[in-house]
Request: fold
Amino acid sequence: MIQIENLHKSYVMGHNSLHVLKGLELGIEEGEFVSIMGSSGSGKSTLLNILGILDDYDKGTYYLGGKLIQGLNETKAAMTRNKMIGFIFQSFNLISFKNAMENVALPLYYQKVSRKRRNQIALEYLDRLGLKDWAHHLPSELSGGQKQRVAIARALISQPQIILADEPTGALDSTTSFEVMEILKEINDQGKTVIIVTHEHDIAAMTKKIIRLKDGVIEEVIKNGELQLFKDRVRTE
Amino acid sequence: MFDIDRWNEIWNALAKNKVRSLLTAFGVFWGIFMLIVMAGSGKGLQNGVSEGIAKFAANSAFFWAEQTSEPYKGFKRGRNWHMDSEDLQYLRDKIPEIEYITPKNFTGRWGNGSNVIRGKKNGSFNVKGDYPDYVKIDPATVLKGRWINDLDIRDKRKVCVIGEKVFESLFDPKEDPLGQYLKISGVYYQVVGLIRAETQININGRTEESISLPFTTMLQTYNMGNQVHFLAITAKKGVPVSVVEDKVKEFIKKKHSIAPTDMQALNSVNIEKEFKQMSGLFLGIQILTWIVGIGTLMAGVIGVSNIMLVIIKERTKEIGVQRAIGATPRTIIGQIMLESVVLTTVAGYIGLSMGVGLLELVNRIIENAPTKSGDRAFFAHPEVSLTVAVSALIILIIAGLFAGMIPASRAIQIKPIDALREE
Ligand SMILES: Nc1ncnc2c1ncn2[C@@H]1O[C@H](COP(=O)(O)OP(=O)(O)OP(=O)(O)O)[C@@H](O)[C@H]1O
Ligand SMILES: [Mg+2]
Reply:
C-alpha cells in the first residue's frame, strides 16, 4: 500500500534549514493498523502530511497504492486525497457553519454527488457512528468526542483505502479516546489501512504495529506479537 | 453552479462579516446608483432642452440687423440700417428654397416692455408685430380664440393675441378675455386670442409675457414705416438651412449696400447649428457621466476585492480543510469568484433599482407639477435606457469577477498544509 524509500524532508526558514526526515524507509501493507510514535519534534506530523499528499518531500520515492507520488499538481493531489485518503485531525477541523450532516457529506460534494444523495449517505455514516440524532447540529453544539466521530464519518464517506489521523485522541479524555480507538479498530477490521500519530502508549498499544521515529529515521518497529512486551517495557520506563 | 451548498457557502461567508459586507456592498451600490442618477439626469436635461426646442422648426434661421462693421460704397462703418418689407418679396423671388418667411417687429428695442392698461389693472409687456405664418416656425397652442390671420394683416385691424401671464395680470381667472379691449401705449386693441408657446425659445421676451399685434397694424401705429426688425425663415424640405442662411445674407447685403465681407451687419441664428452644438454638449455630459460613474464604481469594486481578501485570510484554515478533503483549486477559485460576483451584482442591482426608482419619482413629480408654459424647467423624463442598465449590470459582473480574482489566487497560493496549520 505504502512504499517509502530514502525519504528526505527539510524545512527552510530564511537562511536556516531544518533537516527533519533523513532518508526514512517505510513499508505499510494494505489492511494494517499502524501508530507512529516519537518524541515531540521528531517529524511524525511531517511524515503523515507527506503520506497524505498535503506536503511534498525533497528526496526519495513515495509509492501509494503502486502509484508514484511526486510533483503532483494541486488538482491531481486534491483528487487523489479525495478518492484514496481520509483525514482525521486532532482539532477535528469541522466547518463551523455547516451542520454535522453537511460536514460529513462535503467530500462527496467535491465528487459532484447530488445533494440529496450525499446527504442520505452522510446520514447512514452518522447512524453507524451513533450520531443520527445530531445530524442537524452545528459543530459548536457537539462534544469533543462527537465532533471527532463526525470527522471520522467525513473521513470514511468517500470510501478511501487509507485513514490518516494525526493525534486523533489528543483533544479527548481517556474514555472518549478509547471509544474513538474502538471505532478506528472496527474500520481497520473492515479492511482499511489506518495510520495514526500518537503520544500515548496505551493508544498506540491498541494498534497492530508501532513505528518509533527518532532523528529523522525509523528507530524501531514493534509488531503485533511483541506489543505485550512493549507495554511491559513502557510501564517500567 | 446552482448547488445550494455553494450559495450556502456564499451566504455564510458574507453574513459572517455583516458590517464589512454591507459597507463594501455600499461602495458598489453607490457607484452604480450615482452612475444611473447622473446618466438619467443628463438624459433628462437633454430631453428637457430637446422638448423645449424640438417643436421649433429645426430648419429655421433668424436674422436681425446690427451696425455695419465695414465701410462700403461711400457709407462709413458703424451705419445703422434696417431690413424692410420689400425684402420679403425680394428674398422669395431670389431664393426658391425658402418655405416660410415672416417678419417680426418689436416696440422698443430688445425687451423693454410697453405699458398696457385694462381698466384698473395694468402691466408692462413685450409687444410684438407678427405674421400668420410665424406659428408655423415657432408653434403655439391657441387656448382661446385664434392667432393673427390674413384679414388682420390686410385691414391693419386693431386686434391682439395675448400670452398667459398677460391674461393673469389683466383679467380675473374666470373672465373671458376674448372681445375685451387692452390699451397699449394709448391705443385700444381688441383681444382675439390667448396662446401658449410650445417651445422654450423666446425671441425678444417670453411669449407668455407678450402681446402680438398684426404686423401691419404695428407698422402703422408705431410709425415704423416699412422697417423689419427681425426675420424668421424656414428652408424647404431637404434643403439645409445653412444654405438658405448664406443666400439670405448675400442678397440682403447686396440690396442694402453692405460689404459682402461684413460679418456683423446682418446677425443670424441657425437652429440647425444650435441643435448640433447642443448634441455635442450632451455627448460631452454623457461621456463625463460615464467616466465619473465608472470611477465611483471602480472604487466600490476595489472595496469588494479588499473584503474578499480579508474573508479569505480569515478562512484560510477552512479552505485548508476543504482542500485536504478534496476540493480542487478550481472549486475554491470558482467559489470565491462567485461570492465576489454575487456581492457586487446584488449590491449593484439594488443600486440600479434605486437609481431608476429615484429617476421615476422625479419624473412623476415633474409631470404632476402644474405646468404653465415658460415655468417648465429645462428638464424632462429623466430616464436610463435599457442598454445603459444592461451594460451597467454586465460591467458589474465583470468587475465582480475581477474583484474575486486576486483573493482567489491568493487562496490557492497557500499550500494546503500551511493553510491547515493556520491557527
Ligand atoms: N512548516 C514548518 N516550517 C518550519 N519548521 C517546521 C514546520 N513544520 C514542522 N517544523 C519543524 O519540524 C520538526 C518536526 O515537526 P513535526 O510537526 O513533524 O513534529 P512532530 O513529531 O509532529 O511533533 P509533535 O509531537 O510535537 O506534534 C519540528 O522541529 C518543527 O519545529
Ligand atoms: Mg505533530
In short: The pocket of magnesium ion (ligand 2) is lined by residues A 44-45, 166 (CB under 6 Å). The helical segments of chain A are 44-51, 74-84, 100-110, 115-128, 144-157, 174-189, 201-204, 227-236. The first helix of chain A runs from residue 44 to 51. Strands of chain A lie at 2-13, 16-28, 33-38, 59-64, 67-68, 85-88, 162-166, 193-197, 209-214, 217-223.
